[in-house]
Amino acid sequence: MAASKERPEFQGRDVLLVDAVIESGVTQDFLLRRIGESKPRSLRPAVLLDKPSRRHVALEPDYFGFQTASNQLWTGYGLAAANGTGRNANTWCRWWSEAARQAGAVFQKKR
Protein backbone atom coordinates (compact mmCIF):
# COMPACT_ATOMS: atom_id res chain seq x y z
CA MET A 1 0.00 0.00 0.00
CA ALA A 2 1.48 3.34 -1.04
CA ALA A 3 1.90 6.08 1.53
CA SER A 4 -0.63 8.87 1.18
CA LYS A 5 0.76 12.26 0.18
CA GLU A 6 -2.39 14.07 1.26
CA ARG A 7 -2.12 16.50 4.13
CA PRO A 8 -4.61 16.50 6.97
CA GLU A 9 -7.32 19.11 6.61
CA PHE A 10 -7.06 21.70 9.38
CA GLN A 11 -8.96 24.53 7.72
CA GLY A 12 -11.70 25.81 10.02
CA ARG A 13 -10.88 23.31 12.77
CA ASP A 14 -9.67 23.77 16.32
CA VAL A 15 -6.20 22.19 16.54
CA LEU A 16 -4.32 21.29 19.71
CA LEU A 17 -0.64 20.46 19.09
CA VAL A 18 0.41 18.14 21.94
CA ASP A 19 4.03 17.39 22.81
CA ALA A 20 5.86 15.86 25.76
CA VAL A 21 8.59 18.47 26.37
CA ILE A 22 9.27 21.94 25.01
CA GLU A 23 12.80 23.24 25.50
CA SER A 24 14.17 25.33 22.63
CA GLY A 25 10.74 25.52 21.00
CA VAL A 26 12.22 25.33 17.49
CA THR A 27 10.36 22.16 16.47
CA GLN A 28 7.05 23.29 17.91
CA ASP A 29 7.44 26.72 16.29
CA PHE A 30 8.03 25.07 12.91
CA LEU A 31 5.00 22.80 13.31
CA LEU A 32 2.75 25.65 14.43
CA ARG A 33 3.77 27.73 11.40
CA ARG A 34 3.29 24.79 9.04
CA ILE A 35 -0.11 23.82 10.46
CA GLY A 36 -1.09 27.50 10.52
CA GLU A 37 -0.72 27.58 6.72
CA SER A 38 -3.87 25.43 6.57
CA LYS A 39 -5.90 28.22 8.26
CA PRO A 40 -7.29 26.39 11.32
CA ARG A 41 -9.93 28.19 13.36
CA SER A 42 -7.61 27.99 16.38
CA LEU A 43 -4.16 26.51 16.92
CA ARG A 44 -2.76 26.02 20.41
CA PRO A 45 0.30 24.20 21.75
CA ALA A 46 0.05 21.96 24.82
CA VAL A 47 2.99 20.30 26.55
CA LEU A 48 3.53 18.05 29.54
CA LEU A 49 6.86 19.60 30.63
CA ASP A 50 7.75 23.22 29.80
CA LYS A 51 11.35 24.45 30.18
CA PRO A 52 11.13 28.18 29.36
CA SER A 53 14.74 28.93 30.39
CA ARG A 54 15.93 26.83 27.41
CA ARG A 55 13.76 28.62 24.82
CA HIS A 56 15.37 29.82 21.56
CA VAL A 57 12.18 31.20 20.00
CA ALA A 58 9.34 33.37 21.32
CA LEU A 59 6.86 30.60 22.02
CA GLU A 60 4.78 29.91 25.10
CA PRO A 61 2.47 26.89 25.29
CA ASP A 62 -1.19 27.65 25.95
CA TYR A 63 -1.39 24.58 28.18
CA PHE A 64 1.30 22.82 30.22
CA GLY A 65 1.35 20.16 32.89
CA PHE A 66 4.54 21.23 34.65
CA GLN A 67 6.91 24.15 34.25
CA THR A 68 10.49 24.07 35.46
CA ALA A 69 13.37 26.53 35.52
CA SER A 70 15.73 23.58 35.83
CA ASN A 71 17.96 22.55 32.94
CA GLN A 72 18.09 19.06 34.40
CA LEU A 73 16.85 16.05 32.52
CA TRP A 74 13.46 14.75 33.69
CA THR A 75 12.35 11.17 33.18
CA GLY A 76 9.38 9.01 34.07
CA TYR A 77 5.84 8.46 32.80
CA GLY A 78 7.16 7.64 29.32
CA LEU A 79 9.89 10.29 29.18
CA ALA A 80 13.36 8.81 28.98
CA ALA A 81 17.01 9.78 28.87
CA ALA A 82 18.77 9.34 25.52
CA ASN A 83 19.75 5.79 26.50
CA GLY A 84 16.14 4.88 27.43
CA THR A 85 16.72 5.02 31.18
CA GLY A 86 13.75 6.05 33.30
CA ARG A 87 11.02 5.61 30.68
CA ASN A 88 8.94 3.20 32.76
CA ALA A 89 9.28 4.99 36.09
CA ASN A 90 5.87 5.67 37.62
CA THR A 91 7.04 8.95 39.13
CA TRP A 92 8.85 12.08 37.97
CA CYS A 93 12.61 11.72 38.26
CA ARG A 94 15.39 14.18 37.57
CA TRP A 95 19.07 13.67 36.99
CA TRP A 96 21.43 15.32 39.46
CA SER A 97 23.82 16.70 36.87
CA GLU A 98 24.96 16.24 33.30
CA ALA A 99 28.06 14.36 34.48
CA ALA A 100 25.94 12.03 36.63
CA ARG A 101 23.51 11.47 33.77
CA GLN A 102 26.33 10.53 31.42
CA ALA A 103 27.72 8.14 34.04
CA GLY A 104 24.29 6.51 34.43
CA ALA A 105 23.80 7.62 38.02
CA VAL A 106 20.64 6.88 39.93
CA PHE A 107 18.01 9.57 39.43
CA GLN A 108 16.15 11.51 42.11
CA LYS A 109 12.40 11.64 42.64
CA LYS A 110 10.82 15.08 42.50
CA ARG A 111 9.24 15.89 45.85
Plain-language structure description:
The protein is an alpha/beta fold and 111 residues long. Helix content is 15%, strand content 26%. A 3-stranded parallel β-sheet has the order 1-2-3, with helices on one face. The protein has a 3-stranded antiparallel β-sheet with strand order 4-5-6, with no helix packed on it. Strand 1 (14-22), helix 1 (26-36) and strand 2 form a beta-alpha-beta unit. The protein is elongated, with a radius of gyration of 17 Å.
Task: Outline the secondary-structure elements.
Elements: E1 14-22, H1 26-36, E2 42-50, E3 63-67, E4 74-75, E5 93-94, H2 98-103, E6 108-109
Parallel strand pairs: 1-2, 2-3
Antiparallel strand pairs: 4-5, 5-6
**Major sheet description:** 3 strands, parallel
Strand content: 25-35%
* Molecular shape: elongated
Compute the gyration radius: what is it?
A: 17 Å
How many alpha or pi helices?
Answer: 2
- Helical fraction equals 10-25%
Widest sheet, order of strands: 1-2-3
Terminal Cα span: 49 Å
Unreliable stretches covering 5 or more consecutive residues = 105-111
Count of DSSP strands: 6
**Sequence of secondary-structure elements:** EHEEEEHE
Q: What does the average pLDDT come to?
A: 76
Briefly note the structural class of the backbone: alpha/beta
